[in-house]
Amino acid sequence: MLSPIYRRKIRGLVALILFCFSLPGYAEKFPGIADTPQMGWNSWNHFGCNIDEQIIRDMADAMVESGMKAAGYEYINIDDCWHGERDEQGFIQPHAAHFPSGMKALADYVHGKGLKLGIYSDAGATTCAGRPGSRGHEYQDALTYARWGIDYVKYDWCDTDNINPEGAYTTMRDAIHAAGRPMVLSICEWGDNQPWEWAREIGHSWRTTGDIYPCWNCELGHGSWSSWGVLPILDKQAGLRQYAGPGHWNDMDMLEVGNGMTVQEDIAHFSIWAMLASPLIAGNDLRTMSRQTRDILTNEAVIAVNQDGLGIQAMKFIDEGDFEIWVKPLAEGDWAFMFLNRADSETRYRYDWKAHRVEDDISDHALDFGSEAYAWRALWTEARGDTRSPLALEVPAHGVRLLRLTAL
Q1: Quick count: other Cβ atoms within 10 Å of Cβ 278?
Q2: Beta strand 92-94 with 116-122: parallel, antiparallel or unpaired?
Q3: Helix axes 4-21 and 138-148, enclosed angle (nearest 10)
Q4: 288 to each of 62, 63, 144, 371, how far by Cα in Å?
Q5: Which of 145, 136, 159, 155 has its CA nearest to residue 205?
Q6: Is position 211 annotated as part of the catalytic site?
Q7: pLDDT per residue as tens digits for the range 304-354
Q8: 51-64 pLDDT tens trace
Q9: What is the structure's pLDDT at 285?
Q10: Is it the case that residue 15 has pLDDT exceeding 70?
Q11: Distance in angstroms (rounded) separating the CA atoms of residues 202 and 273
């Protein structure tokens, strides 16, 4: 008679063989998800590797209690370091001490809150923190995630020497499709191989830069790579807006709102990500955030700019060095205007609406204030006015003024 261990091994191998024989000849990413940029929370920016199942449960609770769920956030994403070892058949297990209840129980808890659970892996043999990656186990891992009830996969790019990125991410896309459970595939390849040129049919978003750091305008070197502040990440988006749209987004990395920048910098950071249609994935401790941080993250008018159904990424319209104007066409004929002050001191600015015709040849939208008047509403201050008279602004250092325009 076979021992229980061997019976488990045989059952696991049979399941994997049947799964592989069921694979279709053509796979695609799951449609109908991430039609607007993803909204959620991720563990890495604040917790790094110091995570466990209680923290994840707490974050799900806090997302509901803080009003973030009501504002549109839905994903609770576990980043690196959740991994234990692979079992005898090669199936990945969660870390037994940190996730003793198992991922299925954790997913059930998160789903019970009306939220969705995300997980992290890597295209290499090991993750960026040295845990087991998915190389050679893509179909096993996707099947495991489906069995656990996972809804989102962030797929990183460490330990990937001599691996073709398009092929590696296509393999994971196909594995997720074969597993049969709709999951977001978030490509975290840092923009090293221009994923915007090849990833539209593979993932739902792709990172365009290296990791973010909670500062306004800095580079933090790590030897062979760097972390970047808000402005350097913004500047690296030049030329990319044509590739973004419903179901395929330029990802400017997770939010650092509430992680140490000034209030004005947090407001500007959130506004920039909203205007450029980047996923809004919070990275702070939701349990202890201040009321100011909560109010920034749950500003429904700004979130609506990010989640607009047209899915058009904003374009830089006017560049005057330390002062920039960005514009974004919105559904039903509305527009968003962002006045960005990059400087270290307050800027007073006068903008004559009628002096500037807006033309966006990528989205084929145009705006002429000489022939049509618009009412405007400031999305952070609730000031109001219209375009029949010039706009006088005081924009704080490292700050923005964000307006929504509606035809009169």
Answers
A1: 27
A2: unpaired
A3: 100
A4: 9, 12, 33, 49
A5: 155
A6: yes
A7: 999 999 999 999 999 999 999 999 999 999 999 999 999 999 999 999 999
A8: 999 999 999 999 99
A9: 98
A10: no
A11: 23
Q: How far is CA 81 from CA 102, 132, 233, in A?
A: 14, 9, 26
Give the whole-angstrom CA distance, residue 166 versus residue 202: 8
Whether residue 23 has pLDDT greater than 50: no
- CA 355, CA 371: separation in Å to the nearest integer? 12
Please give the Cα distance from 282 to 130 (Å, whole number).
24
Strand partners, 328: 336
Token pair belonging to 41: 């929370």
Task: Please identify which of the residues 141, 156, 285, 360 carries the catalytic annotation.
Answer: 156
For residues 136-155, give the mean pLDDT: 98
Contact 254/315 with Cβ under 8 angstroms?
no
> Nearest-CA neighbor of 121 among 162, 63, 77, 87?
77
- The span from the CA of 305 to the CA of 142, in Å, is 33
pLDDT per residue as tens digits for the range 281-291: 999 999 999 99
Active site residue 156: yes
pLDDT of residue 26: 55
| Residue found under tokens 């939010």 | 255
Domains along the sequence of the chain with CATH:
26-306 (3.20.20.70), 315-407 (2.60.40.1180)
Would you state the structure tokens that stand for residue 99, as one six-digit string?
A: 């996730």
Tokens 């000031």 correspond to 383
Amino acid in the structure at residue 408:
L
Polymer length of the chain: 408
Catalytic residue, from 211, 251, 253, 360: name it: 211
Q: Which residues does residue 392 pair with via DSSP β-bridges, in sequence order?
A: 350
- Strand pairing class (315-319; 323-329): antiparallel
